[in-house]
Structures are given as C-alpha cells and as structure tokens.
Amino acid sequence: MADAHHCPTCGAPLRIQNRFVTVVTCEFCGGVSLYDGAHLDPTGRTAGLVQIPSPLYLDATGQIGGRAFRVLGRLLYEYDGGLWTEWFVEVEGAGKAWLIEDEGAFSIVQQRDDLEAPAFDSVSPGDRFQTGGLDVFVDEVGEATVVGAEGQLGAQILPGETIRYIDGSAGEKEVSIEYGELAVEVFVGRPIPRESLVVDAEDYA
Fold first, then answer.
1. CA-CA distance, 131 to 165, in Å (whole number)?
2. Model pLDDT for residues 174-190, shown as the tens digit of each residue
3. Alpha carbon of 177 to those of 82, 97, 152, 160: distances in Å?
4. Greatest distance between any 2 Cα atoms in the chain
5. pLDDT tens digit string along 100-141?
6. Phi, psi angles (nearest 5°) of residue 11
C-alpha cells in the first residue's frame, strides 16, 4: 500500500508508491524532495521536463520479456550527443530497475551495491577494468546534466545536477557507472529488444 505524505513546499498530497523510492517530485508545484523512508526533506530544486516522444509514460504498465512492470518516475539527461531518458520501474519478481531509452533503443539495468567503481579519472574509452568478477570494456566516458524529472525515483540524483559517467560492456552485459553529487552508483543490465517491451495503452478515464 502506498504511504501518504504531503509536499513540504506546497502541501499537496503525495503517495510514496515503492519502498525503494528516495527522491520524490511533486506533480503540483514541481518541488523535489529527498525521502528517507519516513520523512520528506525539500531540496529547494524544481523539476521541469521536456516532453520527447516515447512509448513509455509516467504510471505506464506493461511487460518486459513477459514480466509485468510499472513506471514510477523518470530522469531526462542532456549530453554532447543529445538526450537520453532513464525510467525508474518496478518489475515483477525483480524489484526496482531502470529502463534506459536512448534514440529508440532500450536497456534495463539494476543497481549493484556489491561492485566497486574505479576512480573516474583513471579510465578512458578503450580501457578495461575489473569489478566483482566482471571484465569491463570502457565504451564511453563523459558528462551529462539532469535537465528534468518527474514522479518518484530510486536514485540520489537531482534535477540540475551534472554527473560524470562511464558506459561499458562485459560480455553480453552492459555496465554503467554514474558519479553524482551524493553518490557513485554502479548498474549492470542488458539490452532489451523492442519487441519484448510491451506497454499498455494509456487510460484516460
């Protein structure tokens, strides 16, 4: 059952939908708050969002490879190559995950707290590093800015924040590391064929 809270900025009701949620955006005033499992702490930031075409949307439901999922929130990043979107989702039998959408291609990744990240400045594209038994080939190193957010999120990354990132691969797995203001987070996942992502039609009733 969702937990009832109120936006500390405008007082609007907020319902925390998942125990993994750590950041909440208010759909009424756009205020962004940190959530510690009991209390909402306003950050003083607001979450605007540019709407870009996507089959996904906030509160969307559907299936990923036959498993039911629900969209809880999203982050929009801008980098030198354009924009990409990270959708925070709850997946049946798998818990929290992120669906990464970049130019029509999708990947699903989950945070791995057991893996250590290398120092950002120690790697370059074409390098390899080892972590938790994974031999990671570095494909891309760069910076991106969070230019929008909505819904409820399971990452300590806030609108307006600039992160540094490493994207790589370990065999058929994708490895992504985000170096943010509050935390360094390691994610491991895989590409999702578009045909295996089924999104239910939006209900306007």
1. 16
2. 999 999 888 899 999 99
3. 19, 14, 21, 19
4. 52
5. 999 889 999 999 999 999 999 999 999 999 999 999 999 999
6. 85, 0
